[in-house]
Every structure is written in structure tokens, then in C-alpha cells.
Write a structure and sequence with these properties.
Number of helices: 9
Largest sheet: 10 strands, mixed
Distance between the termini: 21 Å
Number of strands: 14
CATH architecture of the largest domain: 3-Layer(aba) Sandwich
Order of helices and strands: EHHEEEEEHEHEHEHHEEEHEHE
Strand content: 25-35%
CATH topology of the largest domain: Aminopeptidase
Radius of gyration: 21 Å
Structural class: alpha+beta
Number of domains: 2
Strand order of the largest sheet: 4-5-7-14-8-13-12-11-10-9
């Protein structure tokens, strides 16, 4: 019997929760209560868990309940979830997974779904928790393919972009028709976002109100860059400084009437340049799925080909699932 005690989250744990995530091996801004607070109260049935041994916090697990409490999802209302720990041994990882499974059975939870951040988000690479889940016979619900740019190439990163990308960026720099700079103009960015998504018969994940709330809650984790043609805003990028290692491009958007100016090339160039200058190791440029396909795992080959122009490579984003009998 494990000595691990699982406690259901309440606001008295807020400070130690976020501090633990900040100093963990695999936590991200998506695991923090500061992030989850942007949701309107009552929108989700949050059910966050803390794991203690002898009153010492050893893990946290943000999540929520669905299906009248029978299904546990982590994340709920975020991009990444699953169990956050320090750089711990496999034995302790297995004990944490076993304690979680025992807890779920005791609470009558029938299904559990956990989506950890990809391996690149770990400060020290470790998949002890993931292997512990697989050893205990979790299965995979879905795999998505994300693409990320490895920044170990350093200041000569442009030489690792393909010929087309280099040519486009050199032309942008030479012509000086479009510029990119930090902004707080979320209203204009939101209009570009809505226009862009409408072209694909889609809606953005975040409303303008959501973006403004997040900017207020986590100002040190968010950067909005806008692209201008003269004085006209024609595109933008909303960056999440997810943790100490990874910059996540949550939205890269443009107005398609200005597509010929190739603003996304400038966005990706500037994002990589800034990330290297500020000591990050990866730029995550997001999932690359064909959202119109019946199979949610279907890759968007054109999108992947475009991302590979910037020396991006595929990173798995997997959903772990356990069905309790």
C-alpha cells in the first residue's frame, strides 16, 4: 500500500500548486491555476488532484469530470494536462500512477484520459510517468502530430530553413514592406483571427474576452506580435511562453488578401530569432491535423510540408486512456 495521499484541490492550495508547477520537470503554463482561472466559473466541472507523501507535495494533476462524474479528463480547458512531477524515479512514478488508479476506482470513475505535454517540454527528458501508465495497461486514444523547431542550431538558424523560406525572408528584409512588432492590440488581432478562421469554416478556441483575461492573468507568459503593411495590420502571432524550454505559437494568423507578402514567413523568422535570443530550446508551431477529415488523426500534408520549410520536425501529442472495470 502506497504512502501517497491524494487531496482534491481547493483554493487554499493555489499558491503551492502554481509554485510546484513552476519548479517541476514537466509542468507548463497550462497546468497552472493562473491559466485555468480564465474560464468562466461553472464552464467546466474541474477536479484537480494533489499527491502528497508525509505532507510533501510530489505531484499535481489538473483535470475535470464529465458524464456525471464517471469520466476524468486531463486537461480540461487547456492544451496539455496529465501528471506533473519533479525529475523523479520510475519507482515513485509507478506509485503515483497506482495511487491515481486506486483513487479513480474508489470514486467510481469509469474512464480516465490524460494528455501530457510532448517530451520536448520536459526540463530533463523523462517519460517515467508515461511508461508507468503503459505498464499498467493504459492504451492510446489518439495521437496527434505537432511540429516543433529545435533551437540548438543557434544564431545561424536561417541557414537551416529551406531555400524557399530563406528566399522569402531575404526578400521581406530587402523590400521592407512589412514589419513585425510587439503589440497589445488584441481587438485588431481578434478581428484578423475571426476572418482567418471563417475562411476555413472554423471558430477560434479563444474569444477576445478570453485573450484579454489571459493577458491579465499571465502577462509574463504571453506575447502578441503584429505584422503591418505600412500602417495596416495584416497578421499576427500569439505566443505562449509555455515553460522554461518551449515557446508555443498558439495562433499564427494573416489576412489572406495580403498572403502574397508572406507575413507568416516573417512571423516564424522573428519567433525563432526571439526564442533563441531569450534562451529557449524549442519553438512549438502546433498540431498539423486535417481538421476536415473524418479521422481526427489525419495529417495535413500541405501544412506539414510548409512547417518543414522552417526545419520543424514531428512531435507526438498522445492521449492515454484507461477503462476501469
Amino acid at each position: 500500500m502506497s504512502d501517497i495521499k491524494i487531496v482534491e484541490y481547493n483554493t487554499e492550495y493555489r499558491s503551492i500548486w502554481d509554485s510546484f508547477v513552476d519548479n517541476s520537470n514537466n509542468g507548463t503554463m497550462f497546468h497552472k491555476q493562473d491559466f485555468l482561472d480564465y474560464h468562466t466559473p461553472g464552464r467546466f466541472n474541474f477536479y484537480h488532484l494533489l499527491f502528497f507523501i508525509n505532507n510533501k507535495l510530489i505531484a499535481v494533476l489538473p483535470g475535470g469530470l464529465k458524464d456525471d462524474g464517471r469520466t476524468f479528463w486531463s486537461p480540461t480547458g487547456a492544451s496539455y494536462g496529465s501528471i506533473v512531477t519533479n525529475d523523479i524515479s520510475f519507482e515513485l512514478s509507478l506509485e503515483i500512477v497506482d495511487a491515481f488508479m486506486e483513487f479513480c476506482r474508489a470514486k467510481g470513475i469509469v474512464d480516465a484520459y490524460l494528455i501530457p505535454p510532448p517530451l520536448i517540454y520536459s526540463i530533463n527528458y523523462s517519460q517515467h510517468i508515461e511508461y508507468a501508465m503503459l505498464y499498467r495497461k493504459f492504451d492510446f486514444e489518439l495521437h496527434y502530430i505537432s511540429h516543433a523547431i529545435d533551437l540548438k542550431i543557434g544564431d545561424d538558424f536561417l541557414q537551416h530553413f529551406d531555400k524557399t523560406a530563406r528566399k522569402a525572408i531575404h526578400k521581406i528584409q530587402r523590400d521592407n514592406l512589412i514589419t513585425i512588432k510587439p503589440s497589445q492590440d488584441y481587438e485588431t488581432f481578434n478581428q484578423i483571427l475571426l476572418t482567418n478562421k471563417a475562411k476555413h469554416n472554423a471558430k477560434p478556441t479563444h474569444s477576445l474576452e478570453d485573450m484579454l483575461k489571459l493577458q491579465k492573468l499571465m502577462p509574463d507568459n504571453l506575447i502578441l506580435n503584429m505584422v503591418y503593411y505600412g500602417e495596416i495590420p495584416i497578421g499576427g502571432s500569439w505566443l505562449f511562453l509555455a515553460n522554461k524550454k518551449v515557446v508555443l505559437c498558439f495562433y499564427n494568423m494573416l489576412l489572406y488578401e495580403y498572403e502574397h507578402l508572406k507575413p507568416v514567413y516573417l512571423i516564424n523568422y522573428e519567433t525563432v530569432r526571439w526564442a533563441i535570443e531569450n534562451g529557449y530550446e524549442w519553438v512549438d508551431i502546433g498540431v498539423s491535423q486535417d481538421t476536415k477529415a473524418d479521422d481526427p488523426m489525419t495529417p495535413s500534408l500541405n501544412l506539414i510540408y510548409f512547417k518543414e520549410r522552417f526545419n520543424a520536425r514531428g512531435i507526438l501529442r498522445s492521449t492515454y486512456h484507461y477503462k476501469f472495470n
